[in-house]
Structure formats: C-alpha cells, structure tokens
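Course assignment 3, question 2. Fill in each field.
Student: A.L.
Task: Predict the tertiary structure for the chain below.
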Amino acid sequence: MGPISALALALRTSAGDAVLGLFHRQHRPSRGRAVRRPDGTQEARIVVDHGYHPARIELESGVPAVLRFERVEDDPCAELLVSELLPSSYRLAAGAETVVRFTPKAAGVFAFTCGLGLYTGLLVVRPGKGVR
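Answer field:
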C-alpha cells in the first residue's frame, strides 16, 4: 500500500470512528436517575464501554439501591470498580453483568472509578424520605 492509500485509509477509519463516537454520545444519556421498583428498591443500569454510560446516577438516601454494571468491553482498566460509597470494590467480568447492592446512608456526591481512575462516574445521593 502506498503512502496516499495509507493516508486515505487512516482518514476514512478516523472519520468512521468519529461518526461512531458521535452516535454513541448522542444515544447514551450522560446522566440517569435510578428507577423505583415495585419492591421499594431503586435500580440503575450502567454500561461500561470505554467509560460509564450514564456517568452520573441519581439515588435517594435510605433506599436500597441496585446498580447493574454491564461491561461490554474487555479493556483491563474496566475490570475493577471502586467507590467510597460502595461497601467494597467489585470485579466487573467482561461481557457480563455485575450487580451491586447497597443502601446509601447519607446525601452527597460520590465518585466511582475503574481501578486506574481513567473511567469516572458520579453517584449523586439526594436526601430521601425512606422506604415507601
């Protein structure tokens, strides 16, 4: 392949990646609110794909929470989930869903990250009214 062909391929690939990146950003919400389930828990789904999508989850304090992390990539960075709000760190298996259950005790903003801190997200805990 000559230098012109290589450049054209690189530009075409970069443009395709840019379009795909734009598509993902437009169709993945940057923030989400946990949904209240009939059993009284609050639940949110987070897709792990070169970051957390959504990257901001709103929760209510005093209400049991279920976070479902679906790791669709195999980047080693995404394997570990860490947050001061969670009871421990969690290993996220590639191509699988990991369920994290806990009850946020206090209102505040708490970061969650991958093991290297490259992927970041926020758990925004609002004051709650307790289990309804």
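Instructor remarks: Residues 30 and 54 are 5 Å apart (CA to CA). The radius of gyration is 18 Å.
Grade: pending
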